[in-house]
Amino acid sequence: MVKGIISRSPDFKFFGIRTGFAFMFVAGLSLSMALQGQDPVEFKPGGKVEARIFTGFITTFADGESHSKFDLGRAYLGYSYNFTRTLSGRIVYDVADPAVGKLKFTGMLKFGYLRYKTDKWTISGGMIPLPEYDYTDKMWGYRYVFKPSHDEYGFGVSADLGLSVSYKIAPWLLADAILVNGEGFKLTESDSTLKTGLGITVIPVRNVSLHGYYDRMGKDGTSQQSADFMVTYENKGLVFSAVYHYLANTGLIVGRDLRALSFNGTVPVNAKTKLFGRYDFVSSVRVGIEDEAWNLNKDGQLFVAGIEFVLAPGVNLAPNYQGWIPADGDMPFISRFCISLDLKI
């Protein structure tokens, strides 16, 4: 039923998004210039260097064998600059394992964008962080331990080339929209197919937030569409969230649908110690007359549990356990014991 509803969504619903982006961007910049002329407090432009490193020690057990290693998962190097009170720029270089070939590390541009921000408006253009990824990443909170479900299972990417607009309609209501290439930050646009997306965040009662998201990109009569829905409870460091992901026609291939459920929580012990846990369930469907689900080798269940210690501002250490139960019965259960370190400068 969900697949049917999504696949019949007409293109004209998104025509207004594309034409509205230009209007909102120009209006926002005009407002910024007007406010700057009225600001009685002197502003001094300035910037700062930023760096972040994910590293640690991992021991993996699978099929009666074990393997241990020190691992440098990722390093970010960047610089941000405030041109005015509302206008800023940021560039970040990402060094990580490409997961293909013999190279252990390769570097690429992760972010490179100009941003206009006021109390209500946030408008970003360039290689931008996508609002949907930022939201799920924030609610999970332990990216240096394990990627958020939105990114880990291929429902979306963390950055893309294009434009995003967010508007705070009311203290309890926020809307955002994107118009991007749809290729992610690792690839350039190759087929003139753009992705449009809409997100809504509602805070119906204190400490509870509801977040919904939908995006679409199409080519030659076929469209890839994704939808997320998340419920979150936050109160004095206590966080619990549940999210449902759905992706239809993955890679613009009809019938390749993917679903996931992710639950996670954080319980503070004291000001510098937190307990955290997570459970994911990922499944794909059979296409046509195929005997197995199209993504069977990546379907399964994830368990994560750990404790985080704040050693100093910007330095977090998290001993944790990760377990993966593959949906394919011929694949072994995988256990990992990790000591994860997040260093932020």
Keywords:
4 helices; 16-stranded antiparallel β-barrel; mainly beta; Porin; 345 residues; globular
Description:
With 345 residues, the chain is mainly beta. It has a single domain (2-37, 123-344), classed as Porin. Helix content is 13%, strand content 57%. It contains four helices and 16 strands. It has a 16-stranded antiparallel barrel with strand order 1-2-3-4-5-6-7-8-9-10-11-12-13-14-15-16. It is globular and about 65 Å long. The N and C termini lie far apart (48 Å).
How much helicity do the residues have?
10-25%
Structural class: mainly beta
Proportion of strand residues? over 45%
Measured distance between first and last alpha carbons: 48 Å
Task: Produce a short descriptive summary.
With 345 residues, the chain is mostly beta strands. The protein is 13% helix and 57% strand. It has a 16-stranded antiparallel barrel.
Describe the secondary-structure layout.
Blueprint: H1 2-7, H2 15-38, E1 46-62, E2 65-82, E3 87-96, E4 106-117, E5 121-129, H3 131-140, H4 149-152, E6 159-170, E7 173-180, E8 195-205, E9 208-219, E10 222-235, E11 238-248, E12 258-270, E13 273-284, E14 300-312, E15 315-326, E16 334-344
Antiparallel strand pairs: 1-2, 1-16, 2-3, 3-4, 4-5, 5-6, 6-7, 7-8, 8-9, 9-10, 10-11, 11-12, 12-13, 13-14, 14-15, 15-16
